[in-house]
């Protein structure tokens, strides 16, 4: 009975997403594109963290369809790196959909070890993000990621699609950013998690200055 109920919920959710996608494409294409501050201006120094840009080759930028991006490697006094990626899409009406790390990382050879959600305290409130542990050969990495869209932080891909359609109808906007924090677990999974959380807490308030509400 439980299995049947779960299957029914999955089918209903999938149906809603298909209908939402069809509705989105049927809407007017004259959407409002809000201005945003270029991500290249994001601070290279965040407290004890110092970063260096790691440009992505143009063919990959074109393949993922981003309108602006930041790909930078930060490190603090420990020397263990944190890779910070932000991919910003001005519109998702034209087929430039956000690529979920859960789909992209296995394609790059990273095997999932575990996945879940993590609540991070930030100034004034808390955000819920995805936590993803992956490995490739002997390398194991911890990934935190979330979608930042039109003033919201969204962990769920499903709810991201729902809010996409709602905001397309009510606000005539479909802009979104994928935010990813990535660090190796060379000093243990707990320390890697603490490091990633600490970096996210330092980066999030500044990131809000670059992404439109």
List its traits.
213 residues, alpha+beta, nine-stranded antiparallel beta sheet, 5 helices, 9 strands
Give a structural overview.
This protein has about 210 residues and is of the alpha+beta class. The chain has one domain (about 1-205). Helix content is about 35%, strand content about 35%. It has helices at about 1-25, 60-65, 100-105, 155-170, 190-205; strands at about 45, 50-55, 70-75, 80-90, 110-120, 125-135, 140-150, 150-155, 175-185. A hairpin with a 2-residue loop joins β6 and β7. α1 packs parallel to α4. The protein is globular. The mean pLDDT is about 85.
Q: Any low-confidence stretches, pLDDT <50, length ≥5?
A: none
Q: Supply the number of structural domains.
A: 1
Distance between the termini: 43 Å
Number of DSSP helices?
Answer: 5
The biggest beta sheet reads: 9 strands, antiparallel
Mean pLDDT: 86
- Strand composition percent: 25-35%
Write the element-wise H/E pattern from the N-terminal end onward: HEEHEEHEEEEHEH
Shape: globular
Layout of SSEs?
Blueprint: H1 2-26, E1 45-46, E2 49-53, H2 58-64, E3 68-75, E4 81-89, H3 101-107, E5 111-122, E6 125-136, E7 139-149, E8 152-154, H4 157-170, E9 176-184, H5 189-207
Antiparallel strand pairs: 1-2, 2-3, 3-4, 4-9, 5-6, 6-7, 7-8, 7-9
